[in-house]
Amino acid sequence: MLLRRTQLAVCALPCLAALAACGSGETVGTPTTTPLPVADLQRLYVQAADTYNTAEVPVVQAEYAHCSSGPGSPNLPACEQALSADRQATLSFDNAMRQLTFPEAARADVAKLLDDDSKLEALLEQAATAPSLTVIQSLSSQIFTLLNATTMDAAAVRKDIGLPSATAPGATPSPSP
């Protein structure tokens, strides 16, 4: 999750800045209150984050190419499709998180991540149905604020469950990392 947030912020910033998951406040975890063994929790979290990050690579590239007035080819329908795919990836990650039972020490951070992702999902939905690239641009600062928040949230969750900090992937669609 952190990888995706960092990647999107680094890669899509020129895109969305030039133009410009989600939790629903539901409780975190499954009906059982017994946390998973740490190794299982880590494995399942990493699996969900990896799935999310894999889905985000083409999304970020499409956002960069179609949502900016920069070197890509601005295209409202393609931009909206990319933003919708971004929202779907966030929703899938969050649904995977809701299936896990986290230890008490991590629950507040997981709830914050899901809450911030819920806000991000709502903005992505708004952007994905925007009538123009100008409207998408007007939402970009709010989107980036939430991306920064979810990056910090994901880092806290990773720390809570004993995972090292994630790093951004080396390959990005922008000329500089």
Q: In sequence order, what are the helices and strands, one letter per element?
A: HHHHH
Distance between the termini: 18 Å
Helical amount: 55-70%
How can the largest sheet be summarized? none
**What overall geometry do the principal axes of the alpha carbons give?**
elongated
Strand content: under 5%
Q: Average pLDDT, to the nearest integer? A: 80
The helix/strand class is mainly alpha
Low-confidence stretches: 1-31, 169-177
List keywords for this structure.
single chain; 177 residues; mainly alpha; 5 helices; 69% helix; disordered N terminus
3D structure, described in words:
The chain has 177 residues and is mainly α. Helices cover 69% and strands 0% of the residues. It is built from five helices and no strands. The protein has helices at residues 2-18, 38-66, 76-98, 104-128, 133-160. Helix 1 (2-18) runs parallel beside helix 2 (38-66) and helix 2 runs antiparallel to helix 3. The radius of gyration is 16 Å and the shape is elongated. The chain starts with a helix and ends in a 17-residue tail after the last helix. The model is unreliable at 1-31 and 169-177 (pLDDT under 50).
SSE map:
Blueprint: H1 2-18, H2 38-66, H3 76-98, H4 104-128, H5 133-160
Helix pairs in contact: 1-2, 1-5, 2-3, 3-4, 4-5
